[in-house]
Amino acid sequence: MADGTRALFMLFGGTGDLALRKLYPALFNLYKKGSLSKHFALLGLSRKELSDEEFRAKIMTSIADETADQQVATEFVSHFYWKSHDVNNMDHYQDLKKIGNQLDDQYQTGGNRVFYVSMAPRFFGIVAQNLQSQHVLSENGGFNRLVIEKPFGRDYQSAKELNDQLNSGFQENQIFRIDHYLGKETVEAIPVLRFGNPLLEAVWNQNYIKDVQITLAESLGVEDRAGYYDTAGALRDMIQNHTLQIVSYLAMDQPNSFVDTAIRAEKVKALESMEIYTDQGVKDNFVRGQYAGDEDHPDYRHESGVPVDSNNDTFAAGKIVFNNPRWGKTPFYIRSGKKLADKQGRVDIEFKKPLVDIFAKGTGTPGELQKNVLTLEIDPRVGLSLTINTKDSKQGLHTETVPLDYLQSDNRAAQVPLPYERLFHDILNGDGTYFASWPEVAAAWHFVDPVQQVWDTQQPDFPNYQQGSMGPTAADELLARDGNAWFYRGTK
Ligand code: NAD
């Protein structure tokens, strides 16, 4: 086994849903591959009283799907320790400091520390401040990295306050704001597709691209997350973070090199050149929705835990216009929602048709040229497709459209690291490429805040879309006004 990065993890929220379902399996995979050194330890923390053995039993269950070799699993969990910890109790941080130093010595971690806050967002800032004020940070030359889950604020102001709290103990290059979409294969591939293929990058601008469409659709409803979701909505839960992050990779200019600081600088420039809408602009360019019920399923307002008068958006769509030379008036359309036709994360890039279609033979003649569409499939399939015009095989000259397809095989999919595995790997290597920097988060809130503010002051006409559809008809009209249409229409 290669000697991967050494580190002590302090995981706040160590028995939480995210930790058990995603974080431990991801760490185990890194360990099996040698990217995480045997010189690691993990201290799980929450208010629960557990023995190390009880904690290790939970880890065993959590990694069961990833376990082939029982001996390796047993060896892995032997690095796990538990400490009951209340994030507001200063004495408990003194304990952390002592245990941290012991584990550093015992596992020869090189003093490297990863503080992962996998708790409700109201605790993010408190933990960061207390770690600093109580001197829990490593002081013997190792790195100190802080990992923060989502959501990062609920508007610019709250995000700024949170960021100021984090900055009291950590510098920007020590803060890793998780956006798990950035750990997905297709999203990570966007810069390579663009800047590794002159064929694409040469036409990646307003002269050739008619419009860009990003769809992050979920087929599930609010499930058991109403408490959180009803205070967030689709705009905050999916658009401000995941969708705008994908937009930034699609829209940015080429960085000087592929290092996180250079990439982040270009992403910020792209996000800051999005037009911020006036109240009228919001009404013209954004659509919100809430799902209706059907014979077998309640509408959103009758889901468990949702107030019957909730005006929360379970669907959001919008049009982004960039004020920059690359994109000019090429619109980026975005949409995300719950209870849609199917689970589908994708980008459809529609190219312009040729100015002159020399194959067009008049009305009713088959074979008029169609626009090229490049599709990037993010979820659940991983794939690429480009539709191109060619001649069909019949007598005479008629054109037809065929796809050039790449679809990840099941075999290859089985080898692909889990999103959290990639992200942990990057955290251990100090690589912030696939994390959201503060200026990006700020720019995204500056764009989203005016939309939310208009929505907060106006009574919506909810419910306004059927379960199993692709959202309200107003989302179709948004594109139709520009002479466009959603390329992806759902499979139902
Ligand atoms: P959870 O409620 O399951 O776990 C929270 C943990 O915090 C528990 O271990 C709990 O014991 C601990 N805790 C609560 N109050 C405490 C206190 N005062 N002192 C010490 N410990 C305390 O939450 P989760 O679903 O695991 O989510 C964790 C974070 O991850 C949240 O920020 C959430 O938004 C984010 N997230 C979760 C998911 C998911 O699938 N669960 C997905 C994306 C993001």
UniProtKB/TrEMBL annotation:
<feature type="active site" description="Proton acceptor">
    <location>
        <position position="242"/>
    </location>
</feature>
<keyword id="KW-0313">Glucose metabolism</keyword>
<dbReference type="InterPro" id="IPR022674">
    <property type="entry name" value="G6P_DH_NAD-bd"/>
</dbReference>
<feature type="binding site">
    <location>
        <position position="218"/>
    </location>
    <ligand>
        <name>substrate</name>
    </ligand>
</feature>
<dbReference type="GO" id="GO:0005829">
    <property type="term" value="C:cytosol"/>
</dbReference>
<comment type="pathway">
    <text>Carbohydrate degradation; pentose phosphate pathway; D-ribulose 5-phosphate from D-glucose 6-phosphate (oxidative stage): step 1/3.</text>
</comment>
<dbReference type="GO" id="GO:0004345">
    <property type="term" value="F:glucose-6-phosphate dehydrogenase activity"/>
</dbReference>
<keyword id="KW-0119">Carbohydrate metabolism</keyword>
<feature type="domain" description="Glucose-6-phosphate dehydrogenase NAD-binding">
    <location>
        <begin position="11"/>
        <end position="188"/>
    </location>
</feature>
<dbReference type="InterPro" id="IPR022675">
    <property type="entry name" value="G6P_DH_C"/>
</dbReference>
<dbReference type="InterPro" id="IPR001282">
    <property type="entry name" value="G6P_DH"/>
</dbReference>
<dbReference type="InterPro" id="IPR019796">
    <property type="entry name" value="G6P_DH_AS"/>
</dbReference>
<feature type="domain" description="Glucose-6-phosphate dehydrogenase C-terminal">
    <location>
        <begin position="192"/>
        <end position="486"/>
    </location>
</feature>
<feature type="binding site">
    <location>
        <position position="237"/>
    </location>
    <ligand>
        <name>substrate</name>
    </ligand>
</feature>
<comment type="similarity">
    <text>Belongs to the glucose-6-phosphate dehydrogenase family.</text>
</comment>
<dbReference type="Pfam" id="PF02781">
    <property type="entry name" value="G6PD_C"/>
</dbReference>
<dbReference type="GO" id="GO:0050661">
    <property type="term" value="F:NADP binding"/>
</dbReference>
<feature type="binding site">
    <location>
        <position position="343"/>
    </location>
    <ligand>
        <name>substrate</name>
    </ligand>
</feature>
<feature type="binding site">
    <location>
        <position position="180"/>
    </location>
    <ligand>
        <name>substrate</name>
    </ligand>
</feature>
<dbReference type="GO" id="GO:0006006">
    <property type="term" value="P:glucose metabolic process"/>
</dbReference>
<dbReference type="Pfam" id="PF00479">
    <property type="entry name" value="G6PD_N"/>
</dbReference>
<keyword id="KW-0521">NADP</keyword>
<feature type="binding site">
    <location>
        <position position="47"/>
    </location>
    <ligand>
        <name>NADP(+)</name>
    </ligand>
</feature>
<comment type="function">
    <text>Catalyzes the oxidation of glucose 6-phosphate to 6-phosphogluconolactone.</text>
</comment>
<feature type="binding site">
    <location>
        <position position="184"/>
    </location>
    <ligand>
        <name>substrate</name>
    </ligand>
</feature>
<dbReference type="GO" id="GO:0009051">
    <property type="term" value="P:pentose-phosphate shunt, oxidative branch"/>
</dbReference>
<dbReference type="InterPro" id="IPR036291">
    <property type="entry name" value="NAD(P)-bd_dom_sf"/>
</dbReference>
<keyword id="KW-0560">Oxidoreductase</keyword>
<feature type="binding site">
    <location>
        <begin position="86"/>
        <end position="87"/>
    </location>
    <ligand>
        <name>NADP(+)</name>
    </ligand>
</feature>
<protein>
    <recommendedName>
        <fullName>Glucose-6-phosphate 1-dehydrogenase</fullName>
        <ecNumber>1.1.1.49</ecNumber>
    </recommendedName>
</protein>
<feature type="binding site">
    <location>
        <position position="150"/>
    </location>
    <ligand>
        <name>NADP(+)</name>
    </ligand>
</feature>
<feature type="binding site">
    <location>
        <position position="338"/>
    </location>
    <ligand>
        <name>substrate</name>
    </ligand>
</feature>
